[in-house]
Amino acid sequence: MTDTETEKTTGWRGSRALWLDAARRALLESGLEAVKIQPLASQLNLSRTSFYWFFKDRQALLDALLDDWEARNTGAFVLARDAYAETIAEAILNLIAVFYDPDLFDPDLDFAVRAWGQGADAVKARVSAADDARLAAIRAMFLRFGFDPTEADVRARTVYLTQIGYISMQVREDMATRLTRVPGYVKTFTGLAPGHSEMARFEARLRPT
């Protein structure tokens, strides 16, 4: 039975989320050129026509990929900004915890979108806007704890550009190594070493439930 015949028999055309997830995987594994309708349909064992129930065309799918990236990765900074913290050290720990959770922030997706933006001005503009929004979120953390605007901006850039450096260089570290460096990073970023209770809460967030 062909894919089209299966579709007619079962009524199964997939879902918007299914097509979007397949597109995301293709982008991560093989780059933008792999995000095409027919190859995705073949991977999903669906007919090409099924795609058009959820997206107008390939460009609509690409736009949805960017929307998904922005909602997830930039949204993670907003979550960290608004999370409870008694000190600036704990606020930065909240942000670092986000970087350690791929369900909240996907560094590979960020890397892929940045690479995509090198060849597309519209995507590059969205990346730049996302960077501005993320910096604003971190800057707001420092302002909340009484740092003057100039210092808040410099410290926010130190935090963010360090993380972007990790992403751009595709740094891979085991969790034990990363954890040993966290207190030093927090002190470097904020001028304040995290307390024992703050580190305990941070580490608890990283343990699977």
* Oligomeric assembly: single chain
Q: Radius of gyration from the CA trace?
A: 20 Å
When the domains are counted, the total is: 2
Approximate shape: elongated
- Sheet-strand content, in percent, reads under 5%
Structural category is mainly alpha
Biggest sheet descriptor: none
What is the tally of helical segments? 11
Q: Which H/E pattern describes the elements?
A: HHHHHHHHHHH
Level of helix content?
A: over 70%
Mean pLDDT: 91
Which residue ranges are poorly predicted, with pLDDT under 50 across at least 5 consecutive positions?
A: 1-10
Give the tally of β-strands. Answer: 0
Report on this model:
The protein is an all-alpha fold and 209 residues long. The chain folds into 2 domains: 1-55, Arc Repressor Mutant, subunit A; 59-206. Helix content is 74%, strand content 0%. The chain contains 11 helices and no strands. Helix 2 (16-30) crosses helix 3, helix 6 (88-99) packs antiparallel against helix 8 (121-144) and helix 8 (121-144) crosses helix 9 (149-168).
Short key terms for the protein model shown above:
single chain, 2 domains, 11 helices, 74% helix, disordered N terminus
Short note summarizing the structure:
The chain is mainly alpha-helical and 209 residues long. It is built from eleven helices and no strands.
